[in-house]
Write a structure and sequence with these properties.
CATH superfamily of the largest domain: Enolase-like C-terminal domain
Distance between the termini: 52 Å
Number of strands: 12
CATH class of the largest domain: Alpha Beta
Structural class: alpha/beta
CATH architecture of the largest domain: Alpha-Beta Barrel
Radius of gyration: 21 Å
Largest sheet: 9 strands, mixed
Shape: globular
Strand content: 5-15%
Number of helices: 14
Number of domains: 2
Helix content: 25-40%
Length: 393
């Protein structure tokens, strides 16, 4: 018998030639924060990586655009000439060479967008979706939950109804007056009104937003509120406590009748390890646009699975952050939800092909090369001051 040696296909490098930043402003969504953001405030930015192979990749960063640009200026010398087809290696190179600037801040957030863009380039170069590159697709579609701000009880129907009519069948309400008025009756009335508005057949999730400035409540409030939320079949209680209160999170998870979720303010896998090891969460929520990108997010998701903790990415971001979350949802065996900001221009009006719910309120996960979405230059020009530079290699 004769054998023919297999000759592997050689994939030419795609060397990075330019790093571009597009701060988004003009229609920034409200956050429900104590010091509320305005439409012209920049809280999100896009990253573009251009290569000598003629392939460009795009990522998203949940950070003020001026900070992203400053971080990109620092990181660019480490990126130029690098092969964008090696996202894990290059992202780690960026982390390793910037630790002294402060791990977890704007540098780490900006690396997130760069990493997402590199995975996008790798997918385009290989002809594979990012989900397939991450090991394979467990699903072709996923349930989006519409992320909305809380309001006074008499306003909750108006907040929720348009999105219910648009086809969403899962909702998360958060921030606003909830937990901030010292009135347990008001908190219950908000949840009661929200449950009535979404109906008994929809999922309802609750986010207290205790990472807000000067959060006024502690463990006892969280325990009492968790018991109240159980009366309304709430799927999880998110950010019920300040983000550094690990001991209180552990205690709350042990007694709460509803699952406890959190982790959106943590960055890099090292920060998540003690929360997972010690059982602080039922559901862990790393944010791909802050945590270090897809390379880091998948490590955290797999680590959580080893501890029996569900992974659902935090996704208060843009169309490109949502695209990354969708690819991760395809690749992770038990990720059944993705976050979708209700009514955000930066989600709905940035790409050449907008996201669309199917008849069952599900989102298809693109099985196209890379992230499966592309920026629309004309749409982006509405929200960033120098769109031509963003697209220039």
């Amino acid at each position: 018998m004769t054998s023919t040696a297999f000759a592997p296909r050689s994939l030419a490098p795609a060397r990075i030639t330019a790093v571009r930043v597009a701060p988004l402003l003009g229609e920034s969504p409200q956050g429900g924060w104590s010091h509320e953001i305005k439409a012209d405030d920049s809280v999100h930015a896009l990253i573009a990586l251009h290569t000598d192979a003629g392939i460009s990749g795009y990522g998203s960063v949940f950070t003020n655009g001026a900070l992203v640009q400053a971080a990109a200026d620092v990181l660019t010398p480490l990126l130029l000439g690098e092969n964008a087809l090696e996202p894990d290696r290059i992202a780690e190179k960026l982390h390793q060479n910037t630790f002294w600037m402060g791990r977890g801040g704007s540098i780490t957030h900006t690396i997130s967008g760069i990493d997402i863009a590199m995975w996008d380039i790798l997918g385009q170069a290989t002809g594979l979706s990012v989900g397939r590159l991450l090991g394979g697709r467990h699903r072709d579609r996923v349930q989006p939950y519409c992320s909305l701000l809380m309001d006074m009880p008499e306003r909750m129907e108006a907040v929720i109804a348009p999105h219910r009519a648009a086809g969403f069948r899962a909702f998360k309400i958060g921030w606003g007056p909830f937990g901030r008025r010292g009135d347990a009756g008001l908190d219950r009335a908000i949840i009661d009104a929200a449950r009535t508005a979404v109906g008994t057949d929809a999922q309802l999730l609750v986010d207290a937003g205790a990472s807000d400035a000067y959060w006024p409540n502690g463990l006892k409030w969280a325990m009492n509120t968790a018991a109240m939320l159980a009366d309304y079949d709430v799927g999880w209680f998110e950010e019920a406590l300040p983000p550094d209160a690990i001991e209180d999170f552990i205690a709350l998870r042990r007694m709460s009748p509803v699952p406890i979720a959190g982790g959106e303010v943590l960055t890099r896998r090292q920060s998540f390890a003690p929360w997972l090891v010690r059982g602080a969460f039922d559901i862990v929520q790393p944010d791909v646009t802050k945590v270090g990108g897809i390379s880091e997010q998948r490590r955290i998701a797999w680590m959580a699975r080893d501890f029996g903790i569900r992974y659902v990415g935090h996704g208060w971001n843009t169309a490109f952050g949502l695209a990354a979350d969708l690819q991760l949802a395809a690749a992770m065996p038990d990720c059944t939800l993705v976050e979708y900001i209700g009514g955000s221009a930066y989600v709905d009006r940035l790409t050449t092909r907008p996201f669309a719910l199917d008849a069952e309120g599900m989102l298809a996960i693109p099985d196209l090369p890379g992230l499966g979405v592309s920026p629309d230059p004309a749409l982006l020009a509405r929200y960033t001051p120098d769109p031509e530079k963003f697209f220039s290699a």
